[in-house]
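SAMPLE LOG
Freezer: B-3
Tube label: C17
Construct: single chain, 266 aa
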Amino acid sequence: MCYDLWTVISYIDTHIHLDCLDAPQALLDEARDAGVGAWVVPGTSCERWAQLMATTGMHAEVYAAPGVHPQAADRCTAADLEGLRRLLQHPRVVALGEVGLDRQVGCPWPVQEELFVQMVRLAREADKPLLIHNRRSTQRVLEILRQEGADQVGGIFHAFSGSLETAREIIALNFAIGVGGVVTFATARRLPEVVRKVPPTALVLETDAPDLAPEPYRGQPNRPAYLALVAERVAALRGWSKQETARITTANACRILKLPADTVPD
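STRUCTURE (predicted):
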């Protein structure tokens, strides 16, 4: 397994919108210097899948997770779903995402729910983990995941900021907790407790760049290299060294996303 091979500090960013960043090559080089070795890029809309796959194809350590964000659910057609079914067979596609429910976007709720169910079913059919987007809809997201047997594929709850109780429900469904810049905020209360108290096997790292930059860059565009700041905070909360944080969170990402053995750069 690839996580047995990580013997130096090298993190995996499990959620980064690389296809939305300017000068991605320079940003990835900067991130490598900060100890980041691989990246997973989620989809946001059907219209952006081509750009997503083109970006993935340009970088050996970048993987794709095409899907439809709930804000774009009403633009997804039956033909798009069939295209996604085919895309999930691509060797650089390691997950389906980011998908879920969001009560703060304009897309009608019934449309969001219908598409989310279809996305979970596609993930199970393709045996791919899910990258979950969830805002003010936690219990309904969990209900759908249970009803549709999503524990069979598991995945990651992206940008988690909920309670310890909710985190435990998520972990029981075979999903990991995606820890990003919010964990560094002085105002963060629940997430630090979650990071301290969940099993170490449940934690993975992410930036969500260009969004959710960590302190001291909060409010500015996020960068791939800032994953190191998230990792440092996780290390402090758990009492781990940087090496332990890299080893544990990278092992988790590799296991959950079934990353290939050549994930580790030579």
